[in-house]
């Protein structure tokens, strides 16, 4: 019907596709009506699995359609290389079914589905194309009177569509409805699984006869170990009589979602952390895709649980941030970022994989009240994992409406049974548990997370972390008077907490050592038991009144990349060691990267290591959390977080570690130690007993640490001239502090979330960035004028599941960069049968 061009929309600055009706056909009234009908049909639809239509118009007598530009290939092109893997076929099938459901809900039947009209984008999304012969389904009483006027109505002697994929009723020229698309879908799924058409013949007449009278060969005949569920779904779609098929695309999508977990003949167990080789992008990506594709719970090591049942709810590739049962227990609200898109809120039924967007983007779900009121974090910066800082706490009705802003810098919140909010409020460098808002129950220099009211509303459970940047910690509970009790401690990693329905236990996911969090329960009398052991990542999200749990499972890592220039050519190397690699410093010549490894193979006290930027094997320097390199590159400052905590200097070459005593300080922050330019002093972050944290200058020759920043503020990056320290103050951004002491001086032009990465060599500018979703932009910020110049944009090639980028480090010339990026690929499940 037309020709398709790639074009640029100058107004919105985006590439688009323009479909123009061929000039020779522009005067054909039927073609013209059909072309216009295609545009109007598709424009009614707004769904991620249907190509988006932006505009329609006429130019020099030729009609055109402007649509989104897709990068990838058609399903037909993919099928040229053979049948699809079972998980891939199941994933694509679910996406097609979801797109059809959206169209059918608008009373639009496609009528021309075929592999040529199904497009696979580069990030694995399936898009339905070409509604050129679609028709609006009319009410039964209007059908006979209106059929003749429909421009796409099949006329005598004319078959619209491709016969091998047409339904029997379509071939017979009978009226069709949405069940015709379901028949065609069955033909396509058959071909995805076998690599062969379901119906074929030497001639068009033979092909039509096969569709009308024959059944395709059994799929299992050409494919071993095929789960019988695949065969049944295909057969049910290909029933000759519409009344005997699936009666809706929603019903079909549900059946496909159920079989996705059966799409392998052998159980799949994710690899333990640290088992991947250094150059592990490809194998890790395969593991992540398999985990996201289904079957992650097959062959689980179950402990103390009687016949748990898992129902998978999500099938997209990306990250789930949080999820909650609605008060009725039958529906679920969750926040997710799919396929590199921004965070968005969705709702779904607990027994259905079909999701419904709530129209709220960049809003992080914190809690859901008994009256269906959402507690949200708005406009926050991703804090490095799945929580946000510098955000605005707001509430909004689940049914829709403009959020009402409540409190700045609240990182966690939960509703009491009476509908009042408890919050974690970050103030003056501390996390404060407040209920009601403003009334302090507990404060810490570390961090507080996962706050949850008991069903009776008389207690609040939470996780207490000694470090704001670490997920180690304890499970605690406080009454409404602020009497706190630690119920369970010593966890290497903890995340996810909820009360049992009767309020007798607190269930949480944590691990003492290693990386595979298990589901635990602890009573108010501190009696502890393990409920479920699961390999791989596992996080409790919520518990329903009937005991079902909502949990996410997935693969997570903190990778590290280096980028620079080699003979004026841009070079990128993945410098990850295991799977939790934190960039710390770059040598002035840009040839070495200092980093910290805190994954399981590094040991309980983590590891400090250094690595050349050419990708040579890393050199482990010792235990602890990395700080910075000395000016001569011979020493590394490291904070040991075991017992007792202490500051050490680790030699890069030959030599023995040297301990720096700090008896006046109660606690040292992870990795928070940098050398001053003279090489004789250090700046560190810590706190004196009972006091908020701050930064101190320490003379390595002896003497007590000298505070240089106000309490609750930190600044670690010294200027090359030794006069200033650069740090970040929440809601203020980059701030300078004199090494000799005094109040902070905001840097003009700095954004409220700007984080200093390094000084320029002349001490006149800072390299700053805002940690968060990719791409992260690094600027050179002149400290006198506030002028900002873009230096670099940082993002890994594979952005699927990449939640945030940070920390970023660079050298004084801003020519070499190393950065860490947090990547989480997760799936949401409802699990029942646990006790």
Q: Determine the strand fraction and express it as a percent band.
A: 35-45%
Helix percent band: 10-25%
Q: Uncertain runs with pLDDT below 50, 5 residues or more? A: 138-160, 260-306
The biggest beta sheet is recorded as:
6 strands, antiparallel
Mean pLDDT: 83
Which CATH top level class of the largest domain fits?
Answer: Mainly Beta
Q: N- to C-terminal separation?
A: 61 Å
- How many E strands? 57
Q: Remind me, CATH topology of the largest domain?
A: Neuraminidase
- Looking at CATH, the homologous superfamily of the largest domain is TolB, C-terminal domain
Radius of gyration equals: 30 Å
Pairing-aware structural class of the strands and helices? mainly beta
Query: Can you tell me the CATH architecture of the largest domain?
Result: 6 Propeller
Number of domains: 4
User: What form results from the Cα inertia axes?
Assistant: globular
Q: What is the overall number of helices?
A: 10
């Amino acid at each position: 019907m037309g020709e398709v061009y790639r074009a640029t929309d100058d107004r919105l600055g985006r590439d688009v596709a323009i479909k123009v009706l061929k000039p020779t056909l522009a005067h054909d009234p039927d073609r013209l009506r059909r072309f216009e009908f295609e545009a109007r049909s598709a424009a009614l639809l707004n769904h991620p699995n249907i190509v988006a239509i932006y505009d329609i118009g006429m130019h020099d007598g030729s009609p055109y359609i402007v649509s989104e530009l897709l990068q990838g290939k058609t399903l037909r092109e993919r099928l040229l290389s053979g049948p699809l893997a079972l998980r891939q076929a199941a994933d694509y099938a679910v996406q097609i079914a979801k797109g059809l459901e959206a169209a059918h809900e608008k009373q639009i039947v496609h009528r021309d589905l075929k592999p040529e009209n199904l497009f696979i984008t580069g990030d694995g999304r399936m898009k339905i194309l070409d509604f050129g012969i679609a028709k609006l389904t009319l009410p039964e009483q209007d059908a006979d009177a209106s059929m003749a006027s429909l421009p796409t109505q099949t006329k005598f002697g004319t078959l619209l569509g491709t016969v091998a994929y047409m339904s029997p009723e379509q071939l017979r020229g009978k009226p069709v409805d949405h069940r015709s698309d379901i028949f065609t879908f069955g033909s396509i799924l058959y071909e995805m699984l076998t690599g062969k058409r379901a119906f074929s013949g030497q001639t068009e007449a033979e092909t039509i006869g096969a569709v009308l009278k024959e059944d395709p060969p059994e799929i299992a005949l050409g494919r071993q170990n095929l789960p019988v569920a695949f065969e049944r779904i295909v057969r049910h779609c290909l029933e000759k009589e519409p009344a005997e098929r699936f009666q809706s695309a929603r019903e079909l999508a549900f059946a496909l979602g159920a079989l996705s977990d059966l799409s392998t003949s052998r159980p799949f167990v994710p690899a333990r952390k640290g088992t991947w080789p250094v150059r592990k992008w490809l194998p890790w990506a395969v593991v992540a895709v398999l985990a996201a594709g289904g079957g992650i719970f097959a062959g689980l090591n179950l402990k103390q649980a009687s016949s748990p049942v898992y129902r998978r709810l999500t099938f997209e590739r990306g990250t789930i941030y949080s999820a909650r049962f609605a008060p009725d227990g039958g529906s679920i609200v969750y926040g997710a970022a799919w396929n590199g898109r921004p965070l968005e809120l969705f709702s779904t039924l607990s027994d259905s994989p079909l999701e419904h967007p709530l129209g709220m983007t960049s809003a992080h779900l914190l809690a859901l009240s008994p009256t269906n009121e959402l507690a949200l974090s708005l406009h926050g910066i991703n804090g490095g994992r799945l929580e946000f800082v510098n955000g605005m706490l707001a509430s909004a009705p689940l049914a829709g409406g403009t959020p009402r802003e409540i409190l700045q810098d609240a990182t966690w919140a939960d509703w009491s049974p009476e509908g009042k909010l408890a919050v974690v409020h970050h103030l003056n460098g501390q996390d404060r548990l407040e209920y009601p808002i403003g009334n302090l129950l507990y404060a810490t220099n570390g961090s507080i997370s996962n706050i949850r009211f008991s069903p009776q509303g008389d207690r609040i459970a939470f996780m207490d972390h000694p470090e704001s940047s670490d997920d180690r910690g304890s499970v605690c509970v406080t009454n409404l008077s602020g009497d706190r009790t630690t119920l369970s401690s010593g966890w290497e990693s903890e995340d996810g907490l909820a009360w049992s329905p009767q309020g007798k236990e607190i269930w949480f996911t944590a691990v003492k050592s290693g990386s595979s969090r298990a589901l635990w329960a602890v009573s108010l009398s501190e009696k502890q038991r393990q409920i479920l052991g699961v390999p791989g990542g596992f996080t409790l999200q919520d518990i329903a009144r009937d005991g079902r749990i909502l949990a996410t499972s997935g693969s997570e890592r903190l990778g590290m990349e280096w980028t620079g220039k080699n003979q004026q050519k841009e070079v990128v190397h993945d410098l990850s060691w295991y799977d939790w690699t934190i960039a710390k410093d770059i040598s002035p010549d840009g040839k070495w990267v200092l980093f910290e490894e805190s994954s399981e193979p590094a040991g309980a006290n983590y590891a400090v290591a250094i690595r050349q930027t050419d990708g040579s094997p890393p050199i482990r320097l010792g235990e602890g959390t990395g700080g910075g390199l000395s000016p001569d590159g011979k020493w590394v400052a490291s904070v040991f977080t075991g017992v007792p905590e202490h500051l050490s200097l680790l030699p890069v070459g030959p030599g023995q570690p040297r301990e720096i005593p700090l008896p006046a300080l109660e606690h040292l922050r992870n990795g928070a130690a940098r050398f001053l330019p003279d090489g004789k002093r250090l700046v560190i972050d810590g706190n004196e007993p009972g006091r908020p944290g701050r930064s101190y200058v320490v003379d390595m020759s002896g003497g007590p640490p000298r505070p240089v920043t106000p309490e609750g503020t930190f600044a670690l990056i010294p200027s090359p001239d030794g006069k200033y320290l650069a740090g970040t103050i929440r809601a203020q951004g980059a701030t300078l502090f004199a090494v000799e002491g005094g109040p902070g001086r905001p840097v003009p032009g700095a954004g409220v979330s700007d984080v200093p990465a390094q000084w320029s060599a002349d001490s006149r500018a800072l390299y700053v960035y805002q940690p968060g979703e990719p791409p992260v932009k690094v600027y050179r910020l002149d400290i006198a004028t506030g002028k900002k110049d873009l230096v670099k944009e940082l993002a890994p090639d594979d952005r699927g599941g990449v939640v945030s980028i940070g920390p970023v480090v660079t050298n004084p010339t801003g020519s070499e960069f190393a950065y860490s990026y947090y990547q989480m690929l997760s799936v949401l499940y409802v699990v029942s049968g646990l006790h």
